[in-house]
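Aim 2 progress update. The chain analyzed this quarter is reproduced below.
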Amino acid sequence: MPTRIGENGNILEWQEDYEEAEPGHRHISHLYGLHPSEQITVDGTPELAKAARVTLERRLSHGGGHTGWSRAWIINHYAKLWDGEAAYYNFEQILAKSTLPNLFDNHPPFQIDGNFGATAAIAEMLVQSTSERIVLLPALPDAWKSGSIKGLCVKGGAEVDIYWQDGGLTHTVVRAKCDIRTKVRYKEEIMELELKAGEEKDVRF
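Predicted structure tokens:
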């Protein structure tokens, strides 16, 4: 079945609208289209993105996200919705409630999904990509006011270094591992980019 919106404005989990036995269940498999897939995007399918947010809010309002790996999933979901504050709040929650002193994810006794998921979410907060576009700092929270990150891989065969100051992008360097033709987006600005393998470009908006 294609992804559809239910009576409550949320993404349907099943073929029909059913009363949920556990509305706060930690599984959110019906948001696969949002993450890790790219069938639902803020700039490509805004109505589905809005319904995905409703789905998250319903789950969380009934106690969802109470395990480490589930919380990591939620951070990724909010990152994909370009909501840096919600992503960061849930990042704080996974550290406070589901992370052991040695930084293992506590499920218990240990589950690597929370560790891998949380670090993947940090990357998604700073850069997102599809075969058609690269989005810079889509979910940068206020808490990460200034900083930089180097060597993040993006789809299409490139790496990016990103630098920001006072909450705003200063510049990014894109290095092509193979021939690449894509678009680079920062907020509402979009730039065409075409590089040959081995080339790099300092992108500024």
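DSSP finds four helices and eight strands in the chain. Helices lie at 46-61, 68-80, 84-98, 112-126. These observations will guide the mutagenesis experiments scheduled for the next reporting period.
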